[in-house]
Amino acid sequence: MMQQPRAETDTIGAGEGPQQAVPWSAWVTRHGWVRWWVSHMPPSWIQWWSTSNWWQPLQRLLWGLEGILYLLLALMLCHALFTTGSHLLSSLWPVVAAVWRHLLPALLLMVLSALPALLFTASFLLLFSTLLSLVGLLISMTHPGYTQDLDQ
């Protein structure tokens, strides 16, 4: 005889009732490999994990990584602008040399050709900034005492 899964009901017997908020870390602890790993871990490591401020260096590392990403994106933008401009000017140089009055439209075309690189860089910055912010948010949600320290 198969046993039916039992659903918890609220006071009137409808549905599962109101769900309590569960921290995201509870999802990890449901898995057997985590219990196995914790049971084979030295007690000093478990104490270090639960009592030390290990997330502060991690957060500083993420802030540094975010700064490096902004620097790399600025360099990518400069590279894209100079590469686009040099290719455009090298291909248009005979025309510009022959007819000086077409120089302004060529420069305008060079600036407009850099717009896709600017849009790509802006979207890249937004994506990584959002990702790093979410990681920081998850870290601060795991350790609510640290967010109180930031407010003071």
Automatic annotation (TrEMBL):
Alphabetically ordered keywords of this record: Membrane, Transmembrane, Transmembrane helix
Spans through the membrane: 61-82, 102-120, 125-146
Record's keyword annotation contains Transmembrane: yes
InterPro entries assigned: TMEM239
The keyword Metal-binding is annotated on this UniProt entry: no
Protein name according to UniProt: Transmembrane protein 239
UniProt source species: Pan troglodytes
Classification of source organism: Eukaryota, Metazoa, Chordata, Craniata, Vertebrata
